[in-house]
Amino acid sequence: MRVKRNDIGGLLNSPPPAPEMRKMSGREIAAQNELAVLMVIRDYGHLRTAEIASAVWPTARYPEQLAQRTLRRLLAKGEVLQRVNAIASVSWVLASAGVTRLELFGGNATHGRDIVGVAGATFVHRTLASAFLIRQSSVNGSFAIGEYGIAHGRAPATRQVLSKRIGKLPDGHVMRGNAVDWIEVEASAKPLSDLKAVLKAAEWVGLPLVPEKPYRLSRLLIVFDKRQGHGRRILKAARELWGHLPRSEQHRLQERIILAQADVSTPLKIFGFSETRLSDYQP
Question: Nearest to residue 249, comparing CAs of 217, 203, 281?
Fold first, then answer.
């Protein structure tokens, strides 16, 4: 059979080019960045510029400059507020106008005018937690939520359920699917009795975090400034808590505990975290 050229024209001719994706305008990119900043402040209550930069621009070359530029615009619009924190630098909280903007996009939020922890004794504790959780989210792609987010119902379990089931509240959660890490921060030297209460959470690893839901506790991570050397006291507390058990059982429980030591310089510049299983820790 003779094939006419018209019959194969579609095969010989190149297919039409795919429509080009429309590039976002500078104004659209700015609006997108502003919304992302508002959302991360909403989730953590109060944050410094460094932690906001890490959360929103984890791979950017100059993340803090991008954060500063965006925060200046939000401040001029009255959507964020500056607060002098406990180390005499600036932290950011949501203003009522920022809450309104988030609600336009379907997100619940609360203004941060009444947050007292910005200038209080818990500031370093909360900032270490936020910095660690943000790095878990931005670098590892996990879903992370801090104490503030848990208190405002954005975690798999409410404060009431956690307090009743496990007997205490975490400083945060990191979630990978249905696996939930329990995050604790040690910002000051606690009595051994308090450390033992923290370590008891490791006994729940593998068990449901919430009855009749798929979430299971995966690990206990204890975050602290490595200059303070809390690892030695944590190991001592573990040995006292589980010393009556066979060595194999003690080792199994210690394997569930991760020491996340923060690389920190004065006053509170956080460069990163190194993780070590308590079972492998050498004081």
Answer: 203
- State pLDDT tens for residues 12-23: 455 666 556 678
pLDDT at 273: 96
Torsion, Cα 177 182 185 191, to 10 degrees, reads -170
- How many residues are given for the chain? 283
Distances (CA, A) of 120 to 116, 133, 150, 268, 271: 6, 21, 20, 15, 23
| Gap between the Cα atoms of 152 and 158, Å rounded | 8
Instruction: Yes or no: say if 261 and 231 are a contact pair by the CB < 8 Å rule.
Output: yes
Token couple for 259: 């020491």
Q: Rounded mean pLDDT of 50-62?
A: 96
pLDDT-derived band at 56 (thresholds 50, 70, 90) equals very high
> Phi-psi bin for 84: left (phi > 0), alpha (psi -120 to 50), beta?
beta
**9 vs 66, residue with greater confidence:** 66
